[in-house]
Amino acid sequence: MPPIQTIAFDADDTLWVNETIFTQTQEHFTDIIRPYVRAEELGSQLDQTQIRNLSLFGYGIKGFMLSMIETGLELSDYRLPGTHIQQLLELGKEMLQHPVQLLPHVEETIRQLEGEYPLMIITKGDLFDQESKIARSGLADYFSSIEIVSEKNQETYRRLLRKHSLSAEAFLMVGNSLKSDVLPVCQLGGHAVHIPFHTTWVHEQLTPCQLEGYGYQELENMSQLPAYLQQL
Amino acid sequence: MPPIQTIAFDADDTLWVNETIFTQTQEHFTDIIRPYVRAEELGSQLDQTQIRNLSLFGYGIKGFMLSMIETGLELSDYRLPGTHIQQLLELGKEMLQHPVQLLPHVEETIRQLEGEYPLMIITKGDLFDQESKIARSGLADYFSSIEIVSEKNQETYRRLLRKHSLSAEAFLMVGNSLKSDVLPVCQLGGHAVHIPFHTTWVHEQLTPCQLEGYGYQELENMSQLPAYLQQL
Predict the structure, then answer these.
(1) Do residues A94 and A54 lie in contact, with contact meaning Cβ atoms separated by under 8 Å?
(2) Quick one: average pLDDT of A221-226?
(3) Same domain, A198 and A176
(4) Both B24 and B10 in a single domain?
(5) Per-residue confidence (pLDDT) for residue B44, from 0 to 100
(6) What's the number of domains chain B is made of?
(7) Predicted local distance difference test score (pLDDT) of residue A215
(8) Closest CA to A145 of B88, B45, B67, B162
(9) Tens-digit pLDDT profile for residues B168-177
(10) Closest Cα partner for A78 from B88, B228, B178?
(11) Considering only CB atoms, which chain A residues are within 8 Å of B57?
């Protein structure tokens, strides 16, 4: 096996906390709309709206804000008062300004690996919001290139490998999403390390059979990455 | 003067119609909120909200949708009914799906220049929406590289020139915005062609003194670009 020449990291829920902010906001959302919605409808409707709107909005907080408003209106039969819609806007603006909270061992590991490998970030989502988080993370200088993409599938990774003149066999992707970070990279013959985050958005979940036959390494947290690289 | 080696094009209102779609939507927005708003307040409030929100939302339609909702709520003292908020969401979704209408002479000019120069797109805005428009424009294959950025200032162009190993003296930017396409490129010592679109968003307008002393060429439409390049 050729040695790893480049390591790419996912950002949200790999370098820093993200899904938790969505989950907490979703709880506030439920509290705000609760008085106007039948109890049995207070469920997964927001997830469904988001997934329905993905092809129009893409990933990111602004699309999430619009889906919150749409869901609140639909579930309340359009009775949700303007003051409550304004509260949903404020919730979203708080998300956009939420402090970037690095995950455990991220900074020390990135700092350690930076001298040994070119490091990349490959993250999907809203360009403006991702750039803002990367800047606020304090980590930007450790990465030789940063790619913000609208989707992370085989075609995306194929394009990025070509663009950076990398061979899949010498490329390692580290991320929390089996669907976005592990499976497409393995399918191209690359290496992947899966570091699960404690919650995964329903849209990012895979059934076990979709991963069958692909070899990838699961690590508990980022501190285990250097040792894993050494024994490759 | 060294010959031009790379030509980059802005996209919105340079390759295809954009501002018109915002202007038309703004008229529909005014019609929707009119019954709930004092007449004297039906003015430039939406522009002001958008500019106030730029640092949080960046450019693009999703941010515009959120700013429409916020403005409608504020101007109506939060009395705008849910059904009307839903209409604003629908307006925005129509914008996101609006057919891409190429500007006159764009396709023939791009096709003609493609054999002679590497062509780039440098456009700012929402990653997902811009990618979707580039794909739908049918022009993607003419461009050797496409850069979607969150802001177009000197630092952006400096970074892109470095990334693509281009010298400013051999780089020409073509666009409709003096602020985003012309001024920062001229400041770096590059070349710029300004092709005005009939409307320019207030945030993109410059005062004449900001451009004083910089040489750039103004053309009426894209068909004049090849002749201009020949006489350089």
Answers:
(1) no
(2) 96
(3) yes
(4) no
(5) 85
(6) 2
(7) 78
(8) B162
(9) 999 999 999 9
(10) B88
(11) 62, 96, 128
Q: CATH number, domain at A62?
A: 1.10.150.240
> In this complex, do B56 and A97 lie within 8 Å of one another by their Cβ atoms?
yes
Residue B66: C-alpha distances to residues A47, A64, B88, B117 (Å)? 19, 11, 9, 40
Distance CA B129, CA B137 (A): 12
Query: Touching check for A148 and chain B: CB below 8 Å?
Result: yes
Q: Indicate whether this complex's ipTM tops 0.95.
A: no
Q: Note whether A67 and A172 are same-domain residues.
A: no
For B83-96, what is the mean pLDDT? 98
pLDDT of residue B68 exceeding 90, the answer is yes
Assess whether A106 and A205 both reside in one domain: yes
Tally A–B CB contacts below 8 A.
92
- Helix pair A82-96, B82-96: axis angle to 10 deg: 40
- For position A39, what pLDDT does the model report? 84
Among B96, B123, B148, identify where a domain stops: B96
Shared domain check, A211 and A149: yes
Enumerate the residues of chain A whose CB falls inside 8 A of the CB of residue B96. Answer: 56-57
Which of A202 and A56 is assigned the larger pLDDT? A56
DSSP annotation string for B178-218: IIIIIHHHHHTT-EEEE---S---GGG---GGGGTT---EE
Average pLDDT, stretch B198-205? 72
How far, in Å, CA of B12 to CA of B46, rounded?
A: 20
- Contact at CB, B59 and A83, closer than 8 angstroms: no
Residue B144 sits in a domain whose CATH number is: 3.40.50.1000
Q: What is the span of the domain harbouring residue A223?
A: 6-16+101-230
Has residue A1 been placed in a domain? no
Pair (B90, B113) in one structural domain? no
pLDDT tier at A40, thresholds 50, 70, 90: confident
Structure confidence at residue B166 (pLDDT): 96
Q: Do A76 and B96 touch (CB under 8 A)?
A: no
